[in-house]
Amino acid sequence: MWWPFSRKYPERSPEDVDCREYDYVVVGGGTAGCVVASRLSEDPNISVLVIERGPANDLWFSRIPIVSSNILRSDGGATSWNCEPMAHCGGRKTLFFRAEVLGGGSRINSMVYTRGSPADYDSFVHAAVALGFPIISDANAPDAPLDGVCQLDSTVNASNQRVSTMDAFLSREIALKRKNNLDVCTNAILSKIVFSDPKESGQPRANKVSFKYTDSKKEDLFIAKVRREVIVCSGAIWSPQPLMLSGIGPKAHLEQLSIPVVKDLPGVGSELVYKSLATLSLSSASKVTLTYSLDRSFGRTSRLGGTHQRILDRIASSPVTKGAIEFFKYLLFRTGLLSMPVQALTLFLRSSSLNKEGNRLESRVSKDSTKLPPQALVPDLEIMPLATSACDDLEEHYRVFDKIRVFSSLATLLQPKSRGTVRLASSKPHDRPKIDFGILSNP
């Protein structure tokens, strides 16, 4: 049972942990941070502090698959901003999303766990097979075909609820059980990692962290002492920022912002790999409505006619009615649309396997993979069918796609050669970093 009918998640404020000392400080309570903090705190003799910029947001709705995957919800834990103008894309900016919530991306993503299982596939699968793509029963099996379509497993439990790394590794029960040696400080951002004087210790050593409230209107600065290590695991975008703010990163960039250089590491914030997407969105001309699907799922057909039938059809087709039905189906039976993930299928392939037109498999990989170079055994394309627009222009999404029935296919480049960068916008921790994805920068 969720709070308020049980004990609340034991979040700590910056004031709660100020001036305390810990063996380990984990910067970022995201997908990886929850796992790291959980493993470290298994030993009751080891003290751990987690600094997470978002809240725990431990709510029932955050576990409903289709609801929690809506990254446009203001209370869902997702944030977004535009990247820097991309020089090789005509100066275009693209919107990208990041998580600001305990559990990180595993709280807002599509819950895809890329393992296939034998099952009956829908028409998309049959269409893919007709084009020559084999069905992959287990995408992670050593002898799995390199090109094919597979049904995806999702990170949900037996009750069809989302299971994030917070739920799996740093749940409310675990956090309460380990409250004597584990503090989860939410709504806080790292300001700086403080290092010892190299003249005294021979080399700089992280011995303190300073942090602030995520709310930039609150200017208080807090300190926590570190006995062993500071572990930065805030993802590809957020991890470089605290490192560079602390003086670890490209020397020239740090000096531009008057940040004292502790260690010149050009690789920090460099070599960013972004898997760009090409979206094809189509409006649905299908006459099969959700109402029809609901009737089929309940196993009933109406024998009424005339005015009565039209009135019932109008009531049944109401978004409020549909929503209410789906809500109670999920609440009572954990079934229906709310229990479904956003993405259930995917198609992996190698571009070298396609014909010149790119619409059919032309060749199959040799069964003797030892005769092929390693790069020939790795899929470089993925095609994902989605029941949404997948448009990165929110204005266009609300103006056009949000008003029509639409489905999309996302073509993803899995092995891009282009590289981007993450750089500081300023020396202030509240300012979001500048992101240059570098799409098409590799000729």
Explain this structure to me?
- This protein is globular.
- It is built from 14 helices and 20 strands.
- It folds into 2 domains: 11-86 and 163-273 and 420-436, 3-Layer(bba) Sandwich (FAD/NAD(P)-binding domain); 115-151 and 341-415, no CATH class.
- With 443 residues, the protein is an alpha/beta fold.
- It has helices spanning 14-17, 31-40, 65-68, 123-130, 165-169, 172-177, 198-201, 235-238, 240-245, 251-256, 290-298, 306-316, 319-333, 394-399, and strands spanning 11-12, 21-27, 48-51, 78-82, 95-99, 112-113, 148-151, 153-154, 182-185, 188-195, 206-213, 222-232, 248-249, 263-264, 277-283, 345-349, 381-386, 406-413, 421-423, 434-436.
What's the gist of this structure?
With 443 residues, the chain is an alpha/beta fold.
Strand content: 15-25%
Alpha-beta content class: alpha/beta
Low-pLDDT segments: 115-122, 287-305
Number of helices: 14
Cα distance, first to last residue? 54 Å
Main sheet strand line-up: 1-9-3-2-12-11-10
Number of DSSP E strands: 20
| CATH architecture verdict of the largest domain | 3-Layer(bba) Sandwich
- Percent range of helical residues: 10-25%
Query: What's the CATH topology name of the largest domain?
Result: FAD/NAD(P)-binding domain
User: Briefly, what CATH class of the largest domain?
Assistant: Alpha Beta
Mean pLDDT: 80
Cofactor: FAD
Binding site for FAD: 101, 109-112
Organism: Amylocarpus encephaloides
Domain Glucose-methanol-choline oxidoreductase N-terminal: 123-272
